[in-house]
Amino acid sequence: MGEQPIYTTRAHVFQIDPTTKKNWVPASKQAVTVSYFFDSTRNSYRIISVDGTKVIINSTITPNMTFTKTSQKFGQWADSRANTVFGLGFASEQQLAKFADKFQEVKEAAKLARDKSHEKGETMSNHSQESGRETPSTNQASSFNGTDDEKICHVVPEATVLKSENERLKSAAEHSNTNTKKWETELQTLRENNARLVDALQESSANVESWKKQLSACKEESDMLRGKIAELEAQCNEVNQDKQRNTQLRVRVQELEAELQDKEQELENLRKQAEIIPQLMAECDGITTKLQAAEMRNKELEGTIEGLQMDINNTRKKQGNMKVELKKFMDILDGKIDELHEVRQGLSKLGVDN
């Protein structure tokens, strides 16, 4: 099957500065894909990350590796083979926790694979040693029980087998010594990396304190800026109110100017009217004279009217007397008519009787 991905996430990749061994150097400009790979043929695990065509992480996981969470969204591990420390910055705490859990799981799997490999090597070594111990006894038995020709025939192949077994054991011992030196080297490298990590952790702690102070200063500055912004907003509101008042005042000034023009026009009209006042006064004097003459004429007419009123009253009295006399006459006339009517009725009765 080859090498297959078993877990994939995205993170910002960093590497420890090789010069100072303290500061982090970004390995990618943005968040990239970081994956766990399993090689079934070698029974090994690797963390691989590629930015475009550049491989920025190629770390084989060993049982001695440790993934450390240095903050809520940042974690790191040391790779002695790559002689560096990798750091990953995640977008959330959940992503960091999942990656750390997967690292521990892969680490345990790598440890089991190493233990199985050691057990297999020890089994093969013990089997070889037992074969080596049994070979002389077999040879001894053949030397006692067999003929000389049989001894020669048996000794030559057994010597060859022993020689090959010895060479294999020497090779296994050399390989074991090599692995021991390699593990000692890795252990020393891990110790150095742990020392660097301790230094980096201390520096990170110092940086955290510094960042806390900077954050506190930024908060204070932010509060000050917010206060200034509030003041500026209040000033802006005052300016807007002043603008509104100025606009209202401009409108009022325009209204007053219009009223002033109307008043000036009215004053001009009054001035024109004042110019004809003497003429009007003269006309008024003439009218007064005429009015006095009319009043005198009115008095004369009133006297005449009073005489006429007396005549009218006398006439009305005469008319009243005439009405009384006319009524009396009418009453007499009505009596005469009634008498005449009675006479006619009497005549008609007489005519009937005859």
Provide an overview of this structure.
The chain has a domain at 3-219: Roll (PH-domain like), CATH 2.30.29. A hairpin with a 2-residue loop joins strand 4 (44-51) and strand 5 (54-60). The chain is elongated. Strands 1, 2, 3, 4, 5, 6, 7 and 8 form an eight-stranded antiparallel sheet that branches. It has 354 residues and is an alpha+beta fold. The termini are far apart. The longest helix is centred in the middle third of the chain and has 128 residues, at 148-275. The protein is 73% helix and 15% strand. It contains three helices and eight strands, in the order ββββββββααα. The model is unreliable at 130-158 (pLDDT under 50). The protein has helices spanning 93-145, 148-275, 277-353, and strands at 3-16, 24-26, 32-39, 44-51, 54-60, 68-69, 74-79, 84-89. The relative contact order is 0.05. Helix 1 (93-145) runs antiparallel to helix 2.
Radius of gyration: 70 Å
Q: Sum up the overall morphology in one term.
A: elongated
The CATH homologous superfamily of the domain at 3-219: Pleckstrin-homology domain (PH domain)/Phosphotyrosine-binding domain (PTB)
Distance between the termini: 175 Å
> What's the level 1 CATH class of the domain at 3-219?
Mainly Beta
- Unreliable stretches covering 5 or more consecutive residues: 130-158
**Category from helices, strands and their pairing:** alpha+beta
Strand content: 15-25%
User: Main sheet, how many strands, which sense, barrel?
Assistant: 8 strands, antiparallel
Helical residues, percent:
over 70%
Mean pLDDT: 79
What is the name of the CATH architecture of the domain at 3-219?
Roll
Looking at the structure, the CATH topology of the domain at 3-219 is PH-domain like
Give the helices and strands as they follow along the chain: EEEEEEEEHHH
Number of E-state strands: 8
